[in-house]
Amino acid sequence: MKLWQKGTEINKRIEKFTIGRDRELDLLLAGYDVLGSLAHIAMLCKVGLLDSSEHKLLKTELKAIYRKIEAGSFTIDEGIEDIHSQIEFLLTQKLGDAGKKIHSARSRNDQILVDLKLFTRHNLFQIVDAVTTLFNTLVALSEKHKTILMPGYTHLQVAMPSSFGLWFGAYAESFTDDLLLLQTALRITNQNPLGSAAGYGSSFPIDRQMTTDLLGFDSLNYNVIYAQMGRGKVERTVAYALSSVASTLSKMAYDCCLFMSQNFGFISLPEELTTGSSIMPHKKNPDVFELVRAKSNKIMALAAEIHLIGNNLPSGYFRDFQIIKESYLESFGTLLDCLEITNYVIGRIEVRNDLLEEEKYKYIFSVEEVNREVLKGVPFRESYKLVGDKIRKGEYEPDRTIHHTHEGSIGNLSNKNIKKKFVGILAEFNREKVEQAERELLK
């Protein structure tokens, strides 16, 4: 069944090529297609395009389909082109002409736009949950290890004293900025395109504000052409936000791989969280962090992929957008997986507490020595030269006392302020409004 077919049989090779992975990927959108349809038929009933008995029958049957989707028993039949066709087919099969009326005043174009936005909104909330869990783990680890010093590096050269508290806390604050981008992505996503039809609106007297409210959207994409132009743009914007989260994960995973190597030896993992070698019995490989790094890097490429697919298209709908779905829909699950496994493993990291006692780190305290001389009244450049001369002559002996008190330093991590910032952003996601709207539709 194809919603657009008018009697001519399409060439099978063309059909296979143009449908692509739609039937497989559309299962991820099935529940959202039902939610969009529930809002749409309520509006159709209000404006007189469905009578109340038809609306009641359609609503009952759509909810039954939704329950099958939730139970995992819903499928798209062989020969059915996509999720929209499957649901309309089931409704028509069960309800006859009432089922055929469900497509009034909309196109597959605005239907898929709604599906994608509802899918994106739900999955952004899941990513936010996973980021929040990992953020809290990192803050707890920062506090737990705040007094344990470690080397800080610039240019991969030993630089100044750092701490495990500072290191864990740095990634917590990085996720705070990532959360801000996720919030922006949600705001751009959470605008209703339904009613734009094929991109030029409808001659029916539809009520777009009604479907906006029913679906828990913040507002409309008012201009119907722009609603269609949002296809690809929304996905690209969301992909940038996902890539920011992925970038933080990738950098942290790289640090963990580096710090676990014997040349560094800063951290270790329980043996059961590592893998071995087929020929080297001593190996304990950080494969989990290597895969997190690789998968995160792949997600970082997504925004560029979407940009290139949609960049040279004029306004209006094109089938090119189907290709975006293939990478976009699956990226959420990949990132969620990476966040969850990182949270599981990072909480089990064991840190070394005697690192800076090693001879190779003695010069890491030289800046502290320079600063102590400055506090005695010696100009900074003179103090710098004095300590440098001691190092060159082999006369430098470190004083390992550290006294950092300013905000965000070793002695004042400011984790409470970082958490306050994170919680403030989290509170602006307005999630309850969305969840309440979806509950009301399914009630």
Top keywords for this entry?
443 residues; Fumarase C, Chain A, domain 2; elongated
H and E order: HHHHHHHEEHEHEHEHHHEHHHH
**Domain unit count:** 3
Classify the helix fraction into a percent range: 55-70%
* CATH topology title of the largest domain: Fumarase C, Chain A, domain 2
CATH class of the largest domain: Mainly Alpha
The termini sit apart by 30 Å
Explain what the structure shows:
- The chain has helices at 12-19, 22-26, 30-46, 52-71, 83-95, 97-100, 108-144, 164-189, 208-214, 224-260, 287-300, 302-310, 321-346, 366-375, 380-392, 415-426, 431-442; strands spanning 149-154, 157-163, 191-192, 219-220, 267-268, 350-351.
- The model has no long low-confidence stretch (mean pLDDT 93).
- With 443 residues, it is mostly helical.
- Strand 3, helix 9 (208-214) and strand 4 form a beta-alpha-beta unit.
- The chain folds into three domains: 12-103, Fumarase C, Chain B, domain 1 (Orthogonal Bundle), CATH 1.10.275; 108-146 and 164-204 and 222-356 and 414-442, Fumarase C, Chain A, domain 2 (Up-down Bundle), CATH 1.20.200; 358-412, no CATH class.
- 61% of the residues lie in helices and 5% in strands.
- It is built from 17 helices and six strands.
- Helix 8 (164-189) packs antiparallel against helix 10 and helix 8 (164-189) packs parallel to helix 16 (415-426).
- The longest helix is centred in the first third of the chain and has 37 residues, at 108-144.
- The strands form three sheets. Strands 1-2 form a two-stranded antiparallel ribbon. Strands 3-4 form a two-stranded parallel ribbon.
- The chain is elongated, with a radius of gyration of 28 Å.
